[in-house]
Amino acid sequence: MRFARRTQGGGDAELNAILAGPPPGVLSAMGGFPDPQTFPTTVLDDIVEKLLRDEPGVALQYTPVEGIPSVREYLADRQEAMQGRRPGEGELMVTSGGMECIGLACHALLDPGDVVAVEAPTYLGALMAFAGFEAGVAGIEMDEDGLRVDALADKLEAGLEPRFLYVIPEFQNPTGRTLALERRHALVELCRKHGVLIFEDVAYRELAYDGGALPSLWSLAPDIVVQAGTFSKIFAPGVRLGWAAGPAEVLAELADRKQFTDQCAGGLGQRLVEEYGRAGHFERQIPASRELYASRWRATDRALRAHLPDGCSWSEPAGGFFTWLTLPDHVDTRELREEATAAGVAYVPGRPFYPGDGGANELRFSFSRLDEDEIATAVERLGSVIPA
Ligand SMILES: Cc1ncc(COP(=O)(O)O)c(C=O)c1O
After folding, report:
1. Is the CB–ligand 1 distance for residue 171 below 6 Å?
2. Cα(343)–Cα(346) distance, rounded to whole angstroms?
3. Which site among 31, 150, 290, 333 is 20 to 30 Å from 237 CA-CA?
4. What pLDDT shows up at residue 6?
């Protein structure tokens, strides 16, 4: 069989491994999976019954490309309540999750050979999407306060001309780090000056352990920021629902591109989220989810302190699912993986999260789907295989 040229790079084995889950007996700290105990099954039972009874012609039908009008209205209300800014006419659409929104941006903005600037390290799914559209990727250094805006400024001054900057400002995947407030202001100023569009991925934004939130980049600069949001982490990934908010000119093109992918997000999921949200359930569930992940992070931190040898360090997330571990220089986390799996713990090594070199002695540890006892066991197992 003759396949398209773009298939020659292949998929990423890491992503397949994450989605497939670990072998039996192995505790998985691999995926960015929400804990199923946060899935609102009982409430959804009632909502689904009502939707199927009262409006099958909407919930089970095709929908407009940009989303069902009442759902868009709800999402606009929600943006206003959560981020202090209401999208104007044509500035918001429904997507089939965050990943689809990244794909739509690629469709709309990237020709082969174009360059996307990203935090290094960054979300593996995004890196794969950019590679799939034959784009180059420029990694920008991070530190504990997120993307180093000074490093981006240097690269832009030196002639880098990215089609856009992809950034995850809160509880970043994979590092757990958050972009500091003053950097947010500096970043939008810099990108305005250089005419760089920002693609802001807010997948974990609402999962701050203390319930707080810094201003989103979109709320600071709606003229140059496209925001991709998802209900996967605060509702359920199985529903595959998200949103894009941004300049009307860009949104019109994203909606146009959606005609070439799935044409519309599923109506049932759209109405589920709207009904669930309008009834106030997010206000009940999200605080409970935050508390759950906060206590898991505390358990992870305790276990890391107890079981990791000297010379190891890790990021301290203020929300979300991940901490980023740095092991001693001589340890290669890809090589260590086999031993770790044999000891009964699975993680994702650092390298695939970098667009270029980097991450050899780093790894992502996801604590979102392990209970506290499992976290203690998983970290103890990890510690037992790290050479001192
Ligand atoms: C940063 C980031 N963006 C987007 C996604 C994809 O989300 P969705 O399930 O909405 O496609 C993920 C999922 O892990 C993620 O971590």
Report:
1. no
2. 9
3. 333
4. 77
